[in-house]
Amino acid sequence: MIGGRYRLESVLGGGGFGRVWKAHDESLDVSVAVKEVWLPSATSEEEHAQRLRRAEREARNAARLRSHPHIVTVHDVVIEDQAPWIVMELVDGGTLAELIARDGPLPPAASRLTWPRRPSLAHQAEAARPPAPRGGDQGRLR
Fold first, then answer.
1. Are 110 and 69 in contact (CB under 8 A)?
2. Each residue of 32-79: pLDDT tens digit?
3. Closest to 33 measured CA to CA, from 98, 68, 77
4. For residue 65, what are the contacts with CB-CB under 8 A and spacing of at least 6?
C-alpha cells in the first residue's frame, strides 16, 4: 500500500528511471497508474532530500499540463520510504507497438505529438508518464 491508499496490483512497464504499476485507489475506488521513481544513489542525506524535492517539483509541473490531450494526467505524488511515487491516470489500451500492429501505421497528424514549447516542461512531462505511449478509449495516444 502506497500513501495509505494506493494498492499495487501489477507491473505495467519499467525502465532506467523506475517502474509503472497498475494500482487501485482504495479511497476513490478507481484504478490508477503509479510510477515508482528510482532515484540515483546520493552521497549524503541532504543530496537525497534535494532529489526528493526535485521529483516532487517535476510531478507538480507535469500535473499542470493536465489539459494536454497527449499527456497522462498526474493526480498525486507520494513520498513512501524515502522514495517518490507518482500517481497518474491509468490509460486502458495497448502499447503504441500493439496499436500499430493491430491497426497499421498512424496517420501523419497522429504521429506528431505537440509538446510544450519549453524543453524543461517537456522533459518533466516525459519523466511522469508511463514508459510507452498507450492507446486510449477514444483512439487518442497518451
1. no
2. 999 988 877 777 888 888 888 888 888 888 888 877 777 888 898 898
3. 77
4. 71, 116, 121, 125
